[in-house]
Amino acid sequence: MSQTNETLEQLTSAVRRFAREELLPAEQQVEEEDEIPARIVAQLKELGLFGMSIPEEFGGLGLSMYEEAKVVFEIGYASPVFRSYFGTSNGVGTLGILIEGTEEQRRRYLPRIATGDLITSFCLTEPEAGSDAASLATRATREGDFYVISGTKRFTTNSPHAGIFTVYARTEPKETGPKGISAFLVERDTPGITVGPHNKKMGFRGSHTADVIFENCRVPASALLGGREGIGFKTAMKSLDHARIHMASVAVGLCDRIIDEGVRYATERRQFGKPIAQFQLIQGMLADCAAEAFAARAMVEKASRDKDAGIPIIKESACCKYFATEALGRIADRVLQIHGGYGYLKEYAIERLYRDARLLRIYEGTSQIQQLIIAREMLKEAGA
Ligand code: COS
After folding, report:
1. What residue owns the CA closest to ligand 1's atom 5?
2. pLDDT tens for residues 168-188?
3. Model confidence over 29-60: pLDDT tens digits?
4. Contact at 8 Å (CB) between 322 and 374?
5. Strand locations in 228-312 (E)
6. Which domains does the chain have, with CATH numbers?
């Protein structure tokens, strides 16, 4: 572990205070304006949150997976939109550089990513390649000392703000599966890149996703991640193993928040002459929420400690993402139910949090993809 218990406690306390004192009061403004205020972005930078997973030698906080999860539990207590702004820079947009990047690539990009001055985006998903990521059709064709990239990427989080894209493209046209895929670090000002308009989503207002279109985009051969062709798919999968534990941590933080909203409402709202919290049917719902949130937290803590210890966590990471985000969905649904008709009104936070929570069961791999990964690993372990 890179931080002492004391420094980790200082960091998580600072993030807890920041989430509760600065982020919660700004949530409604973000919802209305579909934008995170610049003052908050500056505070996120100051706390070092863009560089949580980046080693200290490159200016990051150098947190272990366990430490990252503990910090994310705290930031996840606020609207997940805030976390999303620095999420790609700690997660899928940057992890490829940490996992496979050459020394030159690390030195060129990581220090600016760590400060939040360079935002990264992960360009894997395409219009016809979502869950089946290995079927992607974007091409990167070698021409002398360059590659020429063409294709369309979809649902690219933070692409409107990104300064660099980690782009997954097919370098071996005859190879239609995972083996022909390579990854590239493509700088935003490269000619041939168009970022489309923001997608209009059910929730997550303030977090922006869009199509990114590459048209004969020429990048130097040095943009090939890790300097090797054909390893891109595995790099993406390894990035997602880390990112899914991170996402499960976001879900844990949001479970805590939504449960607090439920307890507060249940103790304030009176029916039949007493607070509804005193009715056992409400207590049953609250208890189910607490038990599931506790289980999700324990899973994330165990899986992240295992990852830090070098134990393979492909199955555990998928279990965490699957369980924590599905539990979050059930918790959001119960807490909205506890609010009754008021839960359906925009003036209560649960209406927005319920919509935001819905995304977590979909992105960074749907629940069904997590089930598939878990079962595959089980069968592998059984030698089947
Ligand atoms: N770590 C390292 N290697 C991995 C890996 C991981 N987590 N997962 C797969 N691989 C390797 C496999 O071992 C295999 O290697 P070999 O060919 O050497 O045996 C190779 O990668 C291909 O793996 P696999 O056969 O499992 O690929 P599939 O095409 O069947 O797909 C799934 C795998 C479905 C798991 C993958 O496409 C996936 O995760 N899809 C969801 C994508 C996603 O999350 N999208 C959201 C984007 S972020 S918003």
Report:
1. 237
2. 999 998 998 999 999 999 999
3. 999 999 999 999 999 999 999 999 999 999 99
4. yes
5. 270-271, 274-275
6. 5-115 (1.10.540.10), 120-230 (2.40.110.10), 234-381 (1.20.140.10)
Residue type at 60? G
Which pair of structure tokens corresponds to residue 302?
């165990």
- Cβ atoms of 191 and 217 within 8 Å: the answer is yes
For atom 44 of ligand 1, the residue with the nearest CA is 365
Mean pLDDT for 273-284 is: 98
Q: Is the CB of 133 under 6 A from ligand 1?
A: yes
Residue 218 has pLDDT above 70, yes or no: yes
> Is any ligand 1 atom within 6 A of the Cβ of residue 92?
yes
Mutate to test the pocket of ligand 1, among 132, 237, 242 (most ligand atoms within 8 A of CB): 237
Cβ burial, residue 134 (10 Å; 0-12/13-18/19+):
middle
Average pLDDT of the chain? 97
Here the tokens at position 118 are 């360079």
**Does the Cβ of 365 fall within 6 Å of ligand 1?**
yes
pLDDT in tens, 134-179: 999 999 999 999 999 999 999 999 999 999 999 999 999 899 899 9
Q: Return the sign of the alpha-carbon dihedral for residues 131, 137, 143, 146.
A: negative
Q: Which residues are catalytic?
A: 364
Confidence of residue 2 (pLDDT cuts 50, 70, 90): low
Query: What secondary structure does DSSP assign to 196-236, as a single string?
Result: -PPP--SS-TT--EEEEEEEEEEEEGGGBGGG-TT-HHHHH
